[in-house]
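Need Peptidoglycan DD-metalloendopeptidase family protein's 3D structure for a figure. Predict it.
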Amino acid sequence: MTDALRPLLRRTLMIGLATLLVACSATRPPAPVEDRSAGRAVRPVADVPKAATAASAPASAPVEVKPGSYVVKPGDTLMRIALENGQGWRDIARWNGIENPNLIEVGQVLRVAPPDGPAVAAKPVTAPKLDAKPLPGAASAAASAAASASAPTTPPPAPLPKEADDDIPWGWPAAGPVISAFDEARSKGLGIGGRAGDPVLAAADGRVVYAGSGLRGYGNLVIVKHNATYLTAYAHNQTLLVKEDQAVRKGQKIAEMGNTDAERVQLHFEIRRQGKPIDPARLLPSR
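Structure prediction for Peptidoglycan DD-metalloendopeptidase family protein:
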C-alpha cells in the first residue's frame, strides 16, 4: 500500500465506525431509572388530580363528648374552663394529669367532673312552692298597689328551687349599693359599689380554688367553691387576702375592693350553679 492511499483508508474507516456507533445508539433502549423509595412508584404531586387527593384524605371523625367532659376551644385557658364548669383548675389539672396549666391544646378533651363522681348534668327545674302567709304590712302594701295599679311594675326574681346542695346560708359580699344588675349575656353577676380598700367578704363557707389575676376581664380575682354545685367569684380587687386551697368562713374578709381591669372601683360578684352564672339576687338575703 502506497503512502498516498493510507490517509484515505484511515478516513474511510473512521467514517464507517462513527456511522456504526450512531446506529447502535439509536436502537439501544434508555437506561433504567433506579427507584430509591422502597419499590413504590413516585408520582409528582402536581400530576395528582385534586379530586383524587380529596377523596383519598380520611375525613376527621367527630369528637364524642361524654357528660363530664369538655373539648378545648381556641382562646380557652384552664382557669376559664374551670370557672365555666364550676370546678377548681387544680382539680381539673389533677384529673387529666396536666403538669403545666398553660399547655392545653385546641381539640383536647378534658375531664371536668370528678372521676368517681356523678356526671355534670343539669337538674330538672320544678316550680317553687310559695308561702301563702301574709307579710307584715300587707294591708298597706295592698292599698298602695291599688292606687298605682295602672303603673307597670317589675316582679322580684323568683327564688330557686331547693335541692341537695342548695341549702347554703348566703350573705352579701360587700356593704355597698348595687350599681349594675345581673345580665347573663354580659356581666354574669352583680356590680357592687364602694371605695378602694372596702372589705370583700366570703358569701358562704367554702374553699378557695383560685386567687390571682390570670383570668382576663376579672382583674385580681378570688373564686370560692362551696360544694359540688356552687361557687362564687369576687373580681376587680386591689388586694387579695387569701390563698388557693384555703378554707374560708361566711363573712370572712378575703380581699379589698379595687378597680383592677375595671373602669371604676367596684366588686363584681358572681354565683355559679354547676358552672352556669345565676342572678345572685335570687339567693342573697334582702337588706
